[in-house]
TrEMBL record:
<protein>
    <submittedName>
        <fullName>Uncharacterized protein</fullName>
    </submittedName>
</protein>
<dbReference type="InterPro" id="IPR012674">
    <property type="entry name" value="Calycin"/>
</dbReference>
<feature type="transmembrane region" description="Helical">
    <location>
        <begin position="437"/>
        <end position="458"/>
    </location>
</feature>
<feature type="transmembrane region" description="Helical">
    <location>
        <begin position="465"/>
        <end position="482"/>
    </location>
</feature>
<feature type="transmembrane region" description="Helical">
    <location>
        <begin position="366"/>
        <end position="390"/>
    </location>
</feature>
<keyword id="KW-1133">Transmembrane helix</keyword>
<keyword id="KW-0472">Membrane</keyword>
<dbReference type="InterPro" id="IPR052058">
    <property type="entry name" value="Alcohol_O-acetyltransferase"/>
</dbReference>
<feature type="transmembrane region" description="Helical">
    <location>
        <begin position="402"/>
        <end position="425"/>
    </location>
</feature>
<feature type="region of interest" description="Disordered">
    <location>
        <begin position="1"/>
        <end position="21"/>
    </location>
</feature>
<keyword id="KW-0812">Transmembrane</keyword>
């Protein structure tokens, strides 16, 4: 449930960067998350010089403002909090969200418009609320300042949606009147905190367990570094953050040596002739953390507040204005206790206000529910996958080897689901009837796109629902791949997957699959063009066709280059658009490897995406007259830490087409080689679609357009540069 709650938070798209930050640098949240998971900084690494800020903080540094809420106002605030049924921490969280609404929408150099609420810009705010969970621990682990404990140190509050300027409207006493909104937000924060803490302790425990799992599965330090250096996120994960230590004089003091068994005393602000008049504290958020951050402590009856965001995201002058507005808001709601102002629960100002025609969050929640259902269908497969990843990580000594293998898997696991909507949109484009612009794009398609984009742009609710639906569809599709339900030939993603109900672990040795036909194998004769007939391989896509492999050795015979040529999409994969694609007439990709003299003849070493794995030539057939190789079965297998990450099987021929009998014979030889458990069965392989060998190049208005803009020349240049770089 904790993980599901975190996913639901993301669906609300809380704001974490000011509008003054260039929107073009932020990117798409889903793409940003996938980029970080794959081991790269979202939006690229920031170009800010390190010397401009603190070390490792991408040019950012802390700026600090100190403020104090007077003794009288602090006492009034506490009294009002008690009458409203909330804590001072709840009130501080409310003040953080409402004050953030006054500043987060300002453009560079713009000042807040006091008293004006912009209901057209309603945003959700994610507040990082620090927690002291030690007080909730039970014996024998209760905190007595003598043991080390692992606790949830914070929780997220999701507040909103709030219109821009909501805080200033309360401070100015505008038409929104008494501070009902302030206390609505505070009560919402209290309810969220209670749900997290009071549910038999499950919230904090699950948070610690999830963090522990993340530390074991992923390189958490590297993920934090990537987030800190990200041009898209600037290390910001929260709209604002609040830490409230409480009353200094009520904090338990540490026992001194020799005092075990005695009651713990409390901290003192007076020590003999010396007295602590004010005390401020802060922790840096320059590297990662909150956009706005305030740390609070009550001492001598006064609330001391430190405002310490990261500059230049929040410049010094903006931080000063934020601090003034925050304290002014606290004083306003505190003094309402003294003046006896009545709290009015205005329906329009409530954070639970509904959209005019649709309950707030209805579309998003519906998309989330459907997405969670789609993921839960494959829960067993996800559990098996995570278990295999943990096993692999535990058994690999070098973390770099673990991440190289996992990133190899992630790259292709992500690529397949991303391709599906592209093909669907392409077929919609080319299947739309009516007149066309330049014989390329139907007018009706453009009009439909304008309507859809306009609807999405006009409603943040629709935007959130679309993002949630896209993310849910992505994970459901990957889950289907783990479950073997999304195409066994090209998307069988499970690690150490099963065959006939039994788990098949790791990779076989070459001797276990090598066939007698490989006796006296001649690698020189293996060179040349091969037509791929069938494959079981998630590094390939079932949507392509006319696949060929042109293999040649380097001059010294110690390396090899595979010119992997494809066309796509295939006519069956995209019936309406296949001939309009920029690669409909072909594209070339080059794979590289080496010939290790210590390997048996028939074993090639293949490299790509940071990993190297063996490519076994398992079986070859010869022409009776010439002795040339006419058919071949290849088997690639990547194993790390006892876990099979990838297996690839290729049925190849020198002829463009093969009869069913010839293919059946290849399956028979693969079965004899013991390759069926690894995906060589007929039901586990994808047949490559082919056009007639003498079919002319495609020529239509779209192909002429690609040629006119030089896309085909770009593909050729790219292929040549890759080939030259791999020699």
């Amino acid at each position: 449930m904790y993980v599901a709650g975190k996913a639901a938070e993301g669906s609300k798209s809380p704001v974490s960067l000011p509008d003054a930050y260039d929107a073009s640098r932020r990117g798409n949240p889903l793409i940003n998350a996938l980029t970080t998971i794959s081991g790269n900084a979202a939006g690229g690494e920031t170009t800010k010089a390190e010397e401009e800020g603190a070390p490792g903080c991408a040019g950012r540094r802390s700026v600090v403002q100190f403020r104090t809420l007077g003794e009288e106002d602090t006492a009034l605030l506490l009294k009002r909090c008690r009458s409203e049924g909330v804590t001072v921490s709840n009130a501080l969280g409310s003040a953080a969200a409402l004050t953030a609404s006054d500043f987060i929408g300002l453009e560079e150099g713009e000042e807040e418009d006091a008293g004006k609420v912009d209901e057209d810009n309603r945003r959700n705010y994610k507040i990082l609320q620090s927690l002291d969970m030690r007080r909730y621990e039970s014996e024998p682990y209760a905190d007595d300042a003598s043991t080390v404990g692992c606790h949830a140190g914070s929780m997220d509050l999701m507040i909103g949606p709030l219109g821009d300027g909501s805080g200033s409207s309360l401070r100015s006493g505008s038409s929104r009147g008494p501070p009902s909104l302030f206390w609505d937000v505070a009560r919402d924060g209290r309810a969220q905190t209670a749900a997290f803490v009071d549910d038999d302790g499950r919230g904090p425990k699950e948070a610690v367990r999830v963090f522990d799992a993340a530390m074991r599965i992923s390189d958490m330090n590297n993920l934090v570094h990537l987030t800190a250096m990200s041009e898209a996120s600037q290390g910001r994960a929260y709209s604002a953050g609040v830490t409230n230590v409480g009353v200094y004089e009520r904090q338990g003091a540490v026992r001194r040596e020799g005092s075990r068994g005695r009651e713990r005393g409390t901290l003192k602000s007076k020590h003999g002739n010396y007295e602590i008049e004010d005390l401020f504290f802060a922790t840096s958020h320059a590297r990662t953390g909150c956009l706005y951050q305030v740390s609070c402590l009550t001492i001598n009856g006064k609330l001391s507040l430190t405002f310490h965001p990261a500059s230049p995201l929040v410049p010094e002058e903006t931080n000063a204005a934020f601090a003034d507005a925050f304290v002014d808001l606290l004083a306003t709601v505190a003094e309402s206790e003294k003046t006896g102002t009545e709290t009015i629960h205005d329906e329009d100002s409530s954070i639970f206000a509904s959209l005019p025609s649709l309950p707030e969050g209805a579309l998003t929640n519906a998309a989330l529910a459907a997405g969670v259902g789609g993921i839960l269908i494959h829960a067993g497969a996800w559990s098996e996958f995570i278990g295999n990843v943990l096993s692999m990580k535990e058994n690999i000594a070098d973390p770099a080897d673990f991440w190289a293998a996992l990133n190899f898997w992630i790259f292709f696991a992500v690529g397949h689901p991303i391709l599906q909507p592209i093909l669907w949109i392409s077929d919609v484009l080319h299947g739309t009837p009516g007149p066309q612009i330049a014989d390329l794009v139907p007018v009706l398609f453009l009009a439909g796109n304008a309507l859809v984009i306009g609807a999405v742009a006009s409603s943040k609710e629709i935007q959130k629902a679309v993002n949630v639906a896209a993310l849910a569809a992505f994970f459901a599709y990957v889950g289907a791949g783990l479950d073997g339900q999304a195409g066994m030939g090209d998307f069988n993603l499970q690690l150490n997957d099963q065959y006939k109900g039994a788990v098949v672990k790791g990779c076989p040795t070459y001797d276990q699959v090598r066939q007698p036909s490989m006796d006296n194998f001649d690698l020189e004769k293996y060179q040349g063009k091969w037509y791929e007939q069938k494959f079981h391989d998630w590094t390939q896509f079932k949507e392509v066709y006319d696949t060929t492999l042109d293999i040649k050795l380097t001059e010294d015979g110690m390396g090899w280059i595979d010119d992997f040529a494809v066309k796509g999409p295939a006519p069956k994969a995209a019936a309406l658009s296949w001939d309009k694609s920029p690669v409909a007439n072909g594209a070339h990709y080059f794979l590289f490897g080496r010939v290790d003299p210590n390997d048996a003849p028939g074993v090639l070493r293949e490299s790509g995406f940071g990993v190297e794995f063996p490519n076994y030539i398992v079986d070859v057939q010869k022409d009776d007259k010439t002795g040339e190789y006419t058919e071949a079965i290849q088997f690639q297998c990547l194993e790390r830490g006892g876990v099979r990450v990838f297996e690839g099987i290729n049925f190849m021929s020198r002829n463009p087409t093969m009869t069913e009998d010839e293919l059946g014979a290849m399956h028979g030889r693969a079965e004899k080689a013991g390759m069926y458990p690894y995906g060589a069965g007929p039901e586990q392989m994808h047949s490559v679609e082919r056009r007639p060998i003498d079919a002319p190049p495609l020529d239509n208005s779209w192909q002429r357009m690609w040629h006119a803009i030089g896309f085909d020349a770009l593909l050729e240049l790219l292929a040549e540069s890759i080939e030259d770089g791999g020699r």
